[in-house]
């Protein structure tokens, strides 16, 4: 599983950073999504799916 | 064509009007007659609510929006009325994006973590004061309102000593009975206060959010006033009502209270469940279709207003089985209490931090906390646009 993020769509709600903090953070200045690790470890796949589902702006996806 | 008006009467204080659940069982989207006669829609299903909130073909601008209830919503219809600059909640992209981008960095998960020690300190101070004064106490006045109020004031850089003014204005503004003139006057009063404050901060900046925005130089004083107004008012009424109503919900569901008191490690989950179950944003939000949109097989025409019932959506059994029951161990994330889409609550991570700290601290300090009146005697905020308790007499 690999994460894609679109910071132009992101509204900085922080749901990804809250749900999967090992893989997502937010930038200091605009609060938009930072992907810490593009490749998702197997044990994190569920958390990433939850984060994608919770994202209010559709800024992140995982395939 | 439709004689459905927005159901408003609760049979039980913690449950939304029964009619909403009944409507949701029939279909997720219904025709709704608005207060001005407009024929629009009411959304009660979770999936449909999420779809509308996430869809850019729905506008959040007040122009063209019809009010589901008579009252201050008529404001937007007045000639010459415009949303004051900076009140970005009621704007669409790209205007909305510009304002939000200036603020999101201040409300990140990480930034809110750094506030936690101060939130805990404020919480303990208020518990100390309650303990020193002795029982009984009004939990709203002693705990639920002052904690978030003090936190948002410190974050923004608004002197807490001035709170009476904007707390009173907020009460007027959120009261459903308030006449348009009085709502305008309340907005004007707090706006004038903030405008003045911004002038003073411009001369003498401090280490706070408003000073930071001033120094950023991207916003005019009018815009800064609008942004400050939105954050100050939103930061007050929301978490304050969650703390008050949440405590009432726990006190009237003793097994749930015991579960959280005996295992504070479930606080994060419990907070999400209280947010879902209580859904204090009990009226609206509203959206206006800017083009024809199909939602769950229903064609919403351009120009039609959609009222979304978050309490109904948050109890949709397809998403939250057994959702009419409070269960502080249930995984309740995904609830729509903070909204969804680009307008999802900017301060949600602050609200979470405050609640995660305040509920367990309260139950730790007063393990025997109980109502000082019968549950029926607690005055509910059915007359306010944000639900909660007006007062919560407790003893211990």
UniProtKB/TrEMBL annotation, chain A:
InterPro entries: 3Fe4S_ferredoxin, Fe-S_cluster_ET. Keywords: 3Fe-4S, Electron transport, Iron, Iron-sulfur, Metal-binding, Transport. Its cofactor is [3Fe-4S] cluster. GO terms for molecular function: 3 iron, 4 sulfur cluster binding; electron transfer activity; iron ion binding. The keyword Metal-binding applies. It holds the Pfam family Fer4_13. Ferredoxins are iron-sulfur proteins that transfer electrons in a wide variety of metabolic reactions. PANTHER family: FERREDOXIN (PTHR36923). This is Ferredoxin. It comes from Nonomuraea wenchangensis. The lineage of its organism: Bacteria, Bacillati, Actinomycetota, Actinomycetes, Streptosporangiales.
UniProtKB/TrEMBL annotation, chain B:
It holds the Pfam family p450. Gene3D superfamilies: Cytochrome P450 (1.10.630.10). The keyword RNA-binding does not apply. Keywords: Heme, Iron, Metal-binding, Monooxygenase, Oxidoreductase. It comes from Nonomuraea wenchangensis. Belongs to the cytochrome P450 family. This is Cytochrome P450. Residues 1-20 are annotated as: Disordered. It comes from the Bacteria. SUPFAM superfamilies: Cytochrome P450 (SSF48264). One of its GO terms (molecular function) is iron ion binding. InterPro entries: Cyt_P450, Cyt_P450_B, Cyt_P450_CS, Cyt_P450_sf.
């Amino acid at each position: 599983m690999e994460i894609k993020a679109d910071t132009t769509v992101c509204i900085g709600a922080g749901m990804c950073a809250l749900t999967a903090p090992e893989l997502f953070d937010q930038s200091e200045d605009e609060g938009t999504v930072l992907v810490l690790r593009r490749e998702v470890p197997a044990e994190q796949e569920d958390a990433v799916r939850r984060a994608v589902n919770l994202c209010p702006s559709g800024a992140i996806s995982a395939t | 064509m439709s004689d459905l008006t927005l159901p408003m009467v609760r049979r039980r204080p913690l449950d939304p009007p029964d009619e909403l659940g009944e409507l949701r069982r029939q279909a997720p989207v219904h025709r709704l007659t608005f207060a001005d006669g407009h024929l629009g829609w009411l959304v009660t299903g979770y999936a449909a609510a999420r779809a509308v909130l996430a869809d850019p073909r729905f506008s959040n601008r007040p122009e063209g929006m019809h009010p589901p209830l008579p009252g201050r919503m008529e404001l937007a219809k007045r000639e010459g009325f415009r949303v004051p600059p900076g009140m970005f909640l009621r704007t669409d992209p790209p205007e909305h994006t510009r304002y939000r981008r200036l603020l999101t960095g201040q409300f990140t998960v990480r930034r809110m973590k750094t506030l936690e020690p101060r939130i805990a300190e404020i919480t303990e101070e208020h518990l100390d004061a309650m303990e020193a004064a002795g029982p009984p106490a009004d939990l709203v006045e002693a705990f639920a309102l002052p904690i978030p109020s003090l936190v948002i004031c410190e974050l923004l850089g608004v002197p807490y000593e001035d709170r009476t003014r904007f707390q009173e204005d907020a009460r007027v503004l959120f009261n459903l009975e308030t006449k348009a003139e009085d709502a305008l006057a309340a907005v004007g009063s707090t706006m004038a206060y903030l405008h003045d404050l911004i002038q003073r901060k411009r001369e003498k900046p401090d280490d706070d959010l408003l000073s930071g925005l001033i120094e950023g130089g991207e916003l005019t004083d009018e815009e800064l006033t609008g942004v400050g107004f939105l954050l100050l008012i939103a930061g007050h009424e929301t978490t304050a009502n969650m703390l008050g109503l949440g405590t009432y919900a726990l006190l009237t569901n003793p097994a749930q209270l015991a579960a959280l008191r005996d295992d504070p490690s479930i606080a994060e989950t419990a907070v999400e469940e209280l947010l879902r179950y209580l859904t204090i944003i009990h009226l609206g939000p509203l959206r206006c279709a800017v083009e024809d949109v199909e939602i769950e097989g229903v064609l919403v025409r351009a120009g039609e207003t959609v009222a979304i019932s978050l309490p109904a959506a948050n109890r949709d059994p397809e998403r939250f089985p057994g959702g009419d029951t409070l269960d502080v161990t249930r995984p309740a994330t995904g609830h729509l209490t903070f909204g969804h889409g680009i307008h999802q609550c900017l301060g949600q991570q602050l609200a979470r931090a405050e609640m995660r700290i305040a509920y367990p601290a309260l139950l730790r300090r007063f393990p025997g906390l109980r109502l000082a009146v019968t549950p029926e005697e607690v005055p509910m905020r059915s007359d306010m646009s944000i639900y909660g308790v007006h007062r919560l007499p407790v003893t211990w």
